[in-house]
Amino acid sequence: MHVAIPLYPRFTALDAVGPYTVMAFAPGWTVTFVAEEPGPVTDDQGTLTLAATASYADMPRPDVIVVPGGLGTLDVMSDTALTGWIREAHEHTMWTTSVCSGSLLLGAAGLLKGLKATTHWALLDFLKQAGAEPVSERVVTEGKIVTAAGVSAGIDMALTLLAQATDELTAQSVQLVIEYDPQPPFTSGSPKTAPEGVAERALGLLT
Question: Where does the DJ-1/PfpI domain lie (predicted)?
Answer without folding.
Answer: 2-163
